[in-house]
Amino acid sequence: MEGGIQAWNGVVAEGVYEAGLAYFSRASRAEELISLSFALEEGNRVFYERISQDLKEEDAASIFRSMGQAEERHKETLRELHARVSGKGGNPAHLEGMEAGGFLEGGAPLKETLEWAKGKTLEEILELAIAMEANALDRYIKMGRTVVDDRSREVFLALSLEEQKHLERMTSLLNR
Amino acid sequence: MELSDYYQPVSTWTAEEVRVFLREGSAESYNLVDVRQPGEYESEHLPGARLIPIAELTDRLGDLDRSKATITY
Hints:
By secondary structure, chain A is mostly helical. Chain A has helices at 30-54, 58-86, 110-117, 122-146, 150-174. Chain A has a single domain (27-174), classed as Ferritin, core subunit, four-helix bundle (Ferritin), CATH 1.20.1260. Helices cover 64% and strands 0% of the residues of chain A. Chain A is globular. By secondary structure, chain B is α/β, with parallel strands linked by helices. In chain B, 22% of the residues lie in helices and 15% in strands. Chain B has helices at 15-24, 38-43; strands at 30-34, 50-51, 69-72. In chain B, strands 2-1-3 form a three-stranded parallel β-sheet, with no helix packed on it. In chain B, strand 1, helix 2 (38-43) and strand 2 (50-51) form a beta-alpha-beta unit. Classes of the chains: A mainly alpha, B alpha/beta. Chain A binds chain B through residues 1-5, 7-17, 134-135, 137-138, 141-142, 144-145, 157, 160-161, 164, 168, and chain B through 12-15, 18-19, 23, 26-28, 34, 36, 38, 40-51, 71-73.
């Protein structure tokens, strides 16, 4: 790519390769990767829902609400995949120290991030949301590459495409 | 890696061409490789990029699927 990353004006993810995000390295089996994804999707869902309640701009609030709903659908997809992979119903088990909803994509704690968001502008919140979605995209692509089970790979790659669409929605709102 | 591989033409894409290519293709259809150092990768990288520092590239070509387009930065 001409100019390398300095020429890149699109979104970027952060974190070491093996991690992709905090806690990634703890999860190696498909079942654990699903649990990790489920926990992060729940964190993002709560974040988007709370932010949508505080935003004064109705069109932006509506986008955040629909993002929260999308994360709920992702959770359902992951729940189904987990049942297929593990043979057990219900929500995927928590990874140690990683309760569903405690953290956001990228590893930031939900509670502290919601505190940080108070009084921030829509632009600042969107920049954070874009960084979160970029990390989710990065994570799902890597998970799709890591798992050997065909169905898990398909699901992770399908989720990566959805995260790509979320990124496009967020960036178009930011550039408006 | 064979001697003839050194003579394969390599095209250079602009960042915009890469952005369009990544947006339109599935992550399974290409190799996206970050050849910088681990610390640089950790600070920021294109989503889904593999980290293969340039000094390791020759030894790790087997990590890449030769049938797919490969983009490096």
